[in-house]
Amino acid sequence: MQTRKANSEDLPAIISLLKVSLGESLIPKSEELWKWKHISNPFGASPMLVADDNGLICGVRVFLRWEFRQGKKLIKACRAVDTAIHPDYQGKGLFKNLTLSLVEELKEEGVDLIYNTPNSQSTPGYLKMDWEKWGKLPLKMHFNLSLRKSKNQTFSDDWSSITPLFDKIENGTYTPEEIRTNLVSGYLHWRYVSCPLFPYHLISDGATYLLIYRIKEGKIGRELRIVDFFELPGFGENEKKQLNSRLKTVQKNNGVRFTSFSGLQYKKELPIELGHMPVMSIGPEVTLRKVANLEDVLNMPWAWSLGDLEVF
């Protein structure tokens, strides 16, 4: 058995392995999704290794390339995402071997850190490989329990009309205090417009603000998940009133039971009105692993959005 870099010819075997190992679950295993996620990514093609047993792909480990920025400082990162081991090869250390081998490759490339949001079953394995728990993402929540559930969801998105706004956002400045996703050219379109997993929607005046959200069905009703929010020069009181009026209309028309937003990006002066409930650490669990000689990654001024940490 050999561990090697994956190539384009391995894709059908990798998709087959994912289905055998993981099943379809909530996220479909398809070449379309794989290509969008690991090839079209504006941060670059994903580094991936496979375990090859005489022509049989029995294991795969993939990290999704990502970049963060704090002012002028660029942080090269990867997100530990797709991994699968064939049932006949599980329990033999392949997952650990593939993961640590890929970490060593990233060291040579100059990647600074790896982050992910593992579930409770996989977290212990990551901790044994020097991942560290950052904690659960704080969330700002607003409940709309008085709203009736709507049978029909209504959207009128025109992404093409805000292409100039995308350009302004992606060419904007970064605050030196907070660490956010590096908005390279094409990122917003890739992440939210062309995503094949679920539809994203927008609220915008086309000039001074952009709120991106998706509707997610849950046990207690529909969630309006604000995955990203951008405020641009020219945003004032009139724009704030318009934004919140439109948000309330979307909540009402779609029978939204609660709205969620990253607590790291929520501030008292934030234009989005989400009631008086305190920010609570109830979001996804984040783990980090240093690759380069960074400062204490657990105490860096992270400002992740929900869009940064969604499973996709």
UniProtKB/TrEMBL annotation:
Q: Does the keyword Transferase apply?
A: yes
Give UniProt keywords alphabetically.
Transferase
Q: What's one GO MF term for it?
A: acyltransferase activity, transferring groups other than amino-acyl groups
- Domain (N-acetyltransferase): give its ranges: 1-152
What Gene3D superfamilies has UniProt attached to this entry? 3.40.630.30
Transferase among the record's keywords?
yes
Highest taxon above the source species? Bacteria
InterPro entries, alphabetized = Acyl_CoA_acyltransferase, GNAT_dom
Record SUPFAM superfamilies: Acyl-CoA N-acyltransferases (Nat)
What's this protein's name?
Answer: GNAT family N-acetyltransferase
Q: Which organism is it from?
A: Algoriphagus ratkowskyi
**Native organism taxonomy:** Bacteria, Pseudomonadati, Bacteroidota, Cytophagia, Cytophagales
